[in-house]
Automatic annotation (TrEMBL):
Species the sequence originates in: Bogoriella caseilytica
Family matches, as CDD domains: Aldo_ket_red_shaker-like
Record family assignment: Belongs to the shaker potassium channel beta subunit family.
Keywords: NADP, Oxidoreductase
GO biological process, one term: methylglyoxal catabolic process
Chain ranges of the NADP-dependent oxidoreductase domain: 17-314
Domain of life: Bacteria
Listed GO MF terms: oxidoreductase activity
InterPro entries named in the record: K_chnl_volt-dep_bsu_KCNAB-rel (IPR005399), NAD(P)_OxRdtase_dom_sf (IPR036812), NADP_OxRdtase_dom (IPR023210)
Protein name: Aryl-alcohol dehydrogenase-like predicted oxidoreductase
C-alpha cells in the first residue's frame, strides 16, 4: 500500500503517490478505461487525485468525478487548479484575477460534484494580476470552505516567498508547489527547494518519469513504440520531444542494471528517486492502463541506498537538466488567450 506524507507545514496528509489525469482523461484514454484506472489507483491505496480545469478544457474534471462516484469523500484528497484558458477562452477566462479564480472554483466544484476541494492551486504565476488580488481571492475561498488548502504550480523561489508572506498576512497557509521534477529535470533543487523548506512548503511533483522516458521503453536509434505518448499528439507528444535524444535514451538504458540491483523496475526507480527528496510530499503519476499502477505504487516507502543514488547521479550527470534559471521561464509573461 501507499505511504503518506504531510503537505507543507500543515496537518494535512496526502498519499506519496498521487494519481493525475493531465493527458489521459477525456483525451488519450476513453472514459471507460479512465474510470478503470482510477479504480485501480484506489485499489492500490492511492487516495490523492490531481486534476485541473484546463485539462481537456474542463472535461477531465468531469471524468474524474464519474470515476470517484460512490467513494467516501472523507477518504479522498482531491486537488485541482486554475489559471490557463478554459471554456470560450475569453478575456476573463484565464489568469489569476479575482473573477477568474472565483469562476474557476465554482466551475471545478460543479464539475467534480463536490462541496470543497482539498487543495486549490494556482496553475502558474500571473504576471498581469497584482499578487495581492490573487491571494485575497484564495483567502476568501478558504474562509468560505470551498478549498481547505492553497498551493501553486511552477512558481519561482521569489514568487513563493512573496505568496507565502501574503498568505500569512491574510490568515491562510500556502502549503505546496507543483513543479516538474525527475532524474532528468532537476531545476528546482538549487533555489525552489531550499526556499520551500524554509517556508514550510512541499513539492507535489509532476512528470517524475520524464513523460515516460524513464520507463526505458524509448530506445536510442529506434522509432517510438506505437501507442506511446511520443506518437500521440493529443497526449503530450510535444512535451516529450526534447527528451528523445539518443544521448538521453542511452543514459536511461544504463539505469536498468542499477534498478535491477536495487530490486526495482525502471518506473519504480524513477518514482522512488524523487521521493528520496524529503521536500517532495508526493509524485504525480498517470496511467493509460490499470495494470501500470500496480507496478508504480511499489515505489512508495522505498529507501534508495547511497551507492544507488551515487550510481544514478554518475549515469545521468551529462544529460540531466539542472539550471535553476529555467524556473523563471515556466510561467508565461502574458496571459494565454
Amino acid at each position: 500500500m501507499v505511504n503518506y506524507r504531510y503537505l507543507g507545514n500543515s496537518g494535512f496528509k496526502i498519499s506519496e503517490i498521487t494519481y493525475g489525469n493531465w493527458v489521459t482523461h477525456a483525451s488519450q484514454v476513453e472514459n471507460e478505461a479512465a474510470i478503470k484506472t482510477v479504480h485501480a489507483a484506489l485499489d492500490a491505496g492511492i487516495t490523492s487525485f490531481d486534476t485541473a480545469d484546463a485539462y481537456a478544457n474542463t472535461a477531465a474534471e468531469e471524468v474524474l468525478a464519474e470515476a470517484l462516484k460512490g467513494q467516501k469523500r472523507e477518504n479522498l484528497e482531491i486537488f485541482t487548479k486554475v489559471y490557463f484558458p478554459i471554456g470560450n477562452k475569453g478575456p476573463n477566462d484565464t489568469g489569476l484575477s479575482r473573477k477568474h479564480i472565483m469562476d474557476g472554483i465554482h466551475g471545478s466544484l460543479r464539475r467534480l460534484n463536490l462541496d470543497y476541494v482539498d487543495l486549490f492551486q494556482a496553475h502558474r504565476y500571473d504576471h498581469e494580476t497584482p499578487l495581492e488580488e490573487t491571494m485575497q481571492a484564495f483567502a476568501d475561498i478558504v474562509r468560505q470552505g470551498k478549498a481547505l488548502y492553497i498551493g501553486v504550480s511552477e512558481w519561482t523561489a521569489e514568487e513563493l516567498r512573496e505568496g507565502h508572506a501574503l498568505a500569512q498576512e491574510l490568515g491562510f497557509q500556502l502549503v505546496s508547489n507543483q513543479p516538474q521534477y525527475s532524474m532528468l529535470h532537476r531545476v528546482i533543487e538549487e533555489k525552489v527547494v531550499p526556499a520551500s523548506e524554509e517556508l514550510g512548503i512541499s513539492q507535489i511533483v509532476f512528470s517524475p518519469m520524464a513523460q515516460g522516458v524513464l520507463s526505458g521503453k524509448y530506445l536510442p536509434g529506434q522509432d517510438a513504440p506505437a501507442g506511446s505518448r511520443a506518437t500521440d499528439e493529443k497526449s503530450g507528444a510535444d512535451f516529450i520531444k526534447g527528451l528523445l535524444r539518443d544521448e538521453v535514451l542511452e543514459a536511461v538504458q544504463k539505469l536498468k542494471p542499477i534498478a535491477e540491483d536495487a530490486g526495482l523496475t525502471l518506473p519504480q526507480l524513477a518514482i522512488a528517486w524523487v521521493l528520496q527528496n524529503q521536500n517532495v510530499a508526493s509524485a504525480i503519476v498517470g496511467a493509460s492502463r490499470p495494470e501500470q499502477l500496480a507496478d508504480t505504487v511499489k515505489a512508495s516507502g522505498v529507501t534508495l541506498e547511497a551507492d544507488v543514488m551515487s550510481a544514478i547521479e554518475k549515469t545521468l550527470s551529462d544529460v540531466a537538466v539542472t539550471d535553476p534559471e529555467l524556473t523563471y521561464s515556466s510561467a508565461p509573461k502574458e496571459r494565454l488567450v
